[in-house]
Structures are given as C-alpha cells and as structure tokens.
Amino acid sequence: MSTVRADERPEVLRRVTAKEMRIAIGCTPTPVEQTEAWQAFEATQSRSLFGRYLYECEGKPVAALALYRYEVAGRPFVWAKHGPVWLKEQSPAREAHLRVLLRQEVHRREPRVVFIRMHARYRALDTRELLSTIAYDRTYVIDLRPRDPDKIAEIMPKDGRRAVKRAQRVAEAAGCVIAEETGLDRQAFEEVYEVMVATAVRDGFRPHPSRVYWDMLQSLGPSHARLFVLRRDGVAHAWDLVTVVGRHATAYYGASSDESRTFRGAEALDWFVARTLAAEGCEGLDLMGADSARVPELYGVGQYKKRYARHPTEVDGAWDVPVHRLLYAAMVRARRLRGSLRRRLGA
Fold it and tell me: In this structure, how many other beta carbons lie within 10 angstroms of the beta carbon of residue 104?
C-alpha cells in the first residue's frame, strides 16, 4: 500500500484529448502503444480507450499516458502499455503519487475495474508482479546512428559483428531474398503467418491468431507498422513485424522456420531490417525484450539479442497496481490454484 497521499504533492492528473497529449509529448521518444495510432489497433481487438492523461506540475506536463480497457478471467482492468511517457524527472515519489491519482480516477469513473497495469522504474509497496503475461525491464537496441552498415557492425560486440556478416553471406549463397512486404494481401499474409505457427510449436508458446498481426499491420498503417520477409525459392522462412515512431523502430514480432536455421535466416533478416531502417534515418532498432532477474523466462532470446549491442538498455517494467486489493488478491490465489491443478494433471 502506497504511503503517498494525493494532497501531499503539487502535481495533478488531468484528462486530455489526443491532440493535447501529442503536443505535450512533442519530440520525446514515445512507444507506439502510447501514440494516437495505437487506438485504431486496440479497436480492432474490441478494446476501447479508457482515457488519456497528463500528470502536471503548475501547468507543465511531467508525464503522459493512455490507458485501454482489458479483461482477465472475466474481470476488467486498464492497461497503459509502455506508459507513462515521462517528460520531466522520474522519481520514486512521483511514480507513487501518479499511481495514487490514477487509482482514484479509475475508481471514480469505473468502480468495477480491479487493477491498473502500467510501467514503473521503481518497485513499491503498491505494485505487484503481473497476474498474467510477462513483461521485460531490459532490452537490446541496435544502434543505427552510424548509418553505414560497416560502421553499425563495428560497434556491435565481436560475435555479433561476425554473426551478421556471416548470416548475410550464407543467406545470399542459399538463394534467399529479403524484401519489405508491408502491402501484401490477406491471402499472402496467411502463408507468412504459418511461419509463426511453426515457431510457436518449436519454442513452446501460443501464437496470436493471424488476425491480430494482420489487424496491427492494417490499423497502424505503413507509416507505423512494416513487414519484412525472407524467402527461399518463393517460400517464406522468416519475418519481422516492425513498428516505427519517428526515428525509433521496434522489432515487435518475429518468426522463423526450422529450415531457416540452416541458412541463418533470422539473423540475415534482422540485419537487413537494421540496414534498411538505418538508411531511412532511424536511430535505433529495439529488439524488444531480454532476460533479467525479474524475467528469467527470456534468457534464451536474450542470448540471441545480446550479440547486437554492447550493453542492455534498461526500460520500465510492467506492474499491476490493485484498485480493489482484496479482489485482486483473490484473483491471484485463484490463478495459483489453477496452475497447481494443471501441474498435478500433467497439463
């Protein structure tokens, strides 16, 4: 439970329009989920905007965030994916105060909402590990600022520098063709999606239905969502769905076939995407997630991504912030019980 009171600090929370939020953020790097464009994607998934807010001090914006309505186990919650966007100093006290104001606002507007999911740098008494899904608090970003491919490779760790050059050479020798296919039609995308199905079987996760990835491409549009595909003999073997906001890009989703490993398809594709975006003026390609003490589940993918950057980039991790603490605790207990039963049944 937070010890901060809403009236102990000068900052206030104000609900704003999309335009007001956009003006307040200005040129500050912003995750795609906190842009206006993201609202269209959430709508395709039947999730509506709860609200956009500015956290202000004496009329000047300190942070901004957009929250959307979600459900888990039939219970409503609101989620500010990769938000808030901090515009001024981000301190433990400010984070805690913002959570107090948000809890009050959410409870006032929609009393049934059980918790808020949002990001924070500092763990606190009122934050909880996520009830569902996993998030990350470290990532690796390929530095694209040198623009020239040789210079980009030069600032990678030695094994990464060798890996991308070798992958490019091996993929070309195998007859692979890599191209942007953002404008492909739905039927063609279904073929590409099968690579994700194969990836999920191999790596042991459940992919989204193809419609989710398709809706993301269509609703965000080519200015914010782009698809790059590696093919061999016309058959898709690897793809990256990349989001772009300003000069910052994120490898949001990716997939690769088992066969692609024989010609280093995933590495060749990632390197192609990095070179393409660098030539277009992007400053970094975020590989979106790596392991940390908090998320050891990402260790494997972290080992792959760490070759592309000399140092990890710390990012704000996601936390659940209970609005109804007793009900949230009951949901946690129920989830643990279901997990225990599944393990006993060998599911």
Answer: 13
* Cα of 6 vs its chain's centroid, Å: 30
Q: Which of 131, 10, 147, 124 is nearest to 79 (CA)?
A: 131
pTM over 0.90: yes
Question: What is the Cα 256 distance to its own chain's centre?
Answer: 19
| 3-state class (DSSP) for residue 68 | strand
For the stretch 154-209, pLDDT in tens is: 999 999 999 999 999 999 999 999 999 999 999 999 999 999 999 999 988 899 99
What is the C-alpha to C-alpha distance for residues 125 and 46, in angstroms, rounded to an integer? 33
Task: Give CA torsion, residues 220, 221, 224, 225, to 10 deg.
Answer: 90
Render the burial of 276-315: b for 16+ CB within 10 Å, e for the rest. bbbeeebbbbbbbbbbbeebeebeebbebbbbbbeebeeb
Residue type, 131: L
The yes-or-no verdict on residue 1 having pLDDT over 50 is: no
Residue 347 confidence (pLDDT) above 80: no
3-class DSSP state of 304: helix
The residue type found at 229 is V
Using DSSP's 3-state secondary structure scheme, residue 247 falls into coil
Question: 166 burial class (0-12, 13-18, 19+ CB within 10 angstroms)?
Answer: middle
How far are the Cα atoms of 58, 129, 204, 334 from residue 341, in angstroms, in the given order? 53, 21, 20, 11
User: Mapping DSSP to helix (H, G, I), strand (E, B) and coil, where does residue 268 land?
Assistant: helix
What local confidence, expressed as pLDDT, does residue 300 receive? Answer: 86
